[in-house]
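A note from the maintainers: we've had questions about how concatenated examples are separated. There is no special marker in the raw files; a new sequence line simply starts the next protein. For clarity in this README we add a label.
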Amino acid sequence: MPRKRITSLLAAGAAAVLAVTGLTVATAQAAAGCRVAYTISSQWQGGFGANVAITNLGDAVTSWRLVWSFGAGQTVTQMWNATPTQSGAQVTAVNMSYNGSIATNATVSFGFNGAWTGSNPVPTAFTLNGTACTGGVVNPTTGPPTTAPPTSAPPTSAPPTTPPPTGSLPASYRWSSSGVLISPKSDATHNIAGIKDPSVVYANGRWHVFASTANSSGYNLVYLNFTDWAQAAAATHYYLDRSPIGTGYRAAPQVFFFAPQNLWYLVYQNGNAAYSTNTDISNPNGWTAPRNFYSGMPAIIQQNIGSGYWVDMWVICDTANCYLFSSDDNGHLYRSQTTLANFPNGFDSNTVIAMQDSNRNNLFEASNVYKVQGTNLYLLLIEAIGSDGKRWFRSWTSTSIAGPWTSLANTESNPFARANNVTFSGTAWTRDISHGEMLRAGTDQTLTISPCNMRYVYQGLDPAAGGDYNSLPWRLGLLTQTNSTC
């Protein structure tokens, strides 16, 4: 199996509040009822995050429209898993294409960030599909409502104290870096030289980090979680070769919650593009055995890979389609596509070259694609090898995941992230800014990030280190943007 050649808030939470309401189905003589759980997940000066869970206690519905009014002038600034409109105090949240159906006793959830001044009281009344909610099941032919217990919401949560997305992407970037936050932890059966390729989400009050472990014999995966980045160094490392993911070559993980299936996905490379699923991100033994997105390496990659390696798979979805990106260490970025309804199947037959460069170092590996909150833009990051041999990131934007892509900050003199636009407290512990993951504004398949106060977890390396690539002492740190437009 080829090895991967290259490498690649919080205070101020508020109490949950339940508003018990009812649902009326548009069909005549249909039993109806629902329960709405409105939870303020985090709050900061002038802003807040909230989760809303609708449990259908009546007959199944195929679409939904939830309406409420704010009592103190609050406004919705960004919403995920629903489409918002607001007129004065009244807010309407409408289902997405993938979550309009709610079976009896099933739950659908969405979240949002909002702004407030003065106070932030919880809404006291909701209507669903045009009818005032009553708090139980209503059958027009049989009489008064009855109550039913709530069901649990999907295991997703809004990020902690994320400011509302009132900014934009700047044309140039400045960052400050933490010191080393996460280092390898060897045990009796794992002799780890480097920890690298991090992917991270914030869910259920904790940061969940997945990463590659590396040594001279190859790669596998590790998982850790913590409530605050100050605790990252002390977090327990769970080696995923002990889970159904198994032993052998596994590297470069990406994690996200796929809302249409109510499942967590862990994407990684195993010589193919592989994935495992889990209903509980905090259970390292809950991941399924590897399954592949492709029957084999797509022909277009075989024709262009040269002496490179097929690496660094990345999945992102919009409201209709899912896209799978990968690199070849030979100057090519590839993209495959399938429908949201067909995911994870359907990638096999339509792989294309999304971007290419005759200088393989300019488009090397470790691509990330994100939806930029509050805008119609997507942000593409690709790791390059600089003229000094050090790793750095270039960036582009587009109004579509399928491109075309417009240059943003993508030169050595104006990079997205490189040693020359990153400051350290004291001596720089790395000159490589390599394979990583943006801290997202949510957990789902849209991979949404806020343009305000961007933060990026990355792998770095002692500048004096050398030797066998797999044995290099990679460590993880955190970049924080210092020239936010917000």
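[label: protein 2]
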Amino acid sequence: MVVSSKPILENSSHIKTCKPHVSDDHFSIDIPVIDMLDPQAKFHITKACQEFGFFKVVNHDVPKETITKLEGEAVKFFDLPQCEKDKAGPANPFGYGNKRIGTNGDVGWIEYLLFSTNSELISEKSVNIPGNSHLFWCAVNEYVSGVRNIACLVLEMIAEGLKIEPKNVLSKLLRDQKSDSCFRLNHYRPCTQLEALSGGRNLIGFGEHTDPQVISVLRSNNTTGLQICLKDGTWVSVPPDHYSFFIIVGDSLQVMTNGRFWSVRHRVLANSLKSRLSMIYFGGPPLSAKIAPLSSLMEAGEESLYEEFTWGEYKKSAYLTRLGDNRLGLFEKKIKIRQYGHNLLI
């Protein structure tokens, strides 16, 4: 998929905001904000996952120092000369990548570092980081440990909110020693108006897509760009928040809730004024884990909307698709229903 089919670079006066305001040329909404210390948080999270597949969490346990330490190390890396950064690549799929997103022709206005992670520390030998790499890896592992805990706590609150037993039925997938989770640092340098006019295909920082894993935990610096797509197809911008985290429902969680939760499509627009740095933890299950609607959640007579698959099968399938493809479409069931005496397939 070509990441952008038409020029859509927007300056700060045209980018949609998430304040409760409607105008003639764009639409905005309030992004759900969940206080992790609120006794009712589990119910608010469940509602946000059903309506948006996306929400912001505040009052989390990750110290500001952990966030700023990793951001500082990431900035140092992305400020290196190109020849030095290239030593950490090419991404295959882990390591340093530049503009290319995956292996199927998708490109973006981006450079990134992608690491594999599980319940153990990310190995310093996994990617060659120039300079004082020890400080870099310490910052990465401290940060990943913190956001993994957020992801697991959110999943346990989801289980409570949906009255699923046991409470750790979802979080144990991420805490498993064979968890196929990963972590990515994204850097988008400013895109000037001249570059926007001469290179239309690079106007999108990261093209629209869903995350295939169970759950993602995202933060960025104070630069706009992130947008989510509502169920009616409307794109809305998400105001950045330096010290809060955004939670994204992944394809696997949509399947495990039998479509109750929604894997939200999202993208990043190039910014014409400032560089954007984002950090994303993708919480994935073990490759052998079976992905199917949870039996404890299914109501009497409810049919599964999806064929059962392993995470390894779905991951392999996802790598063969373009960024914006509907990956779950290959695993959706044709369900026979009876209506007015006729059998219909949906």
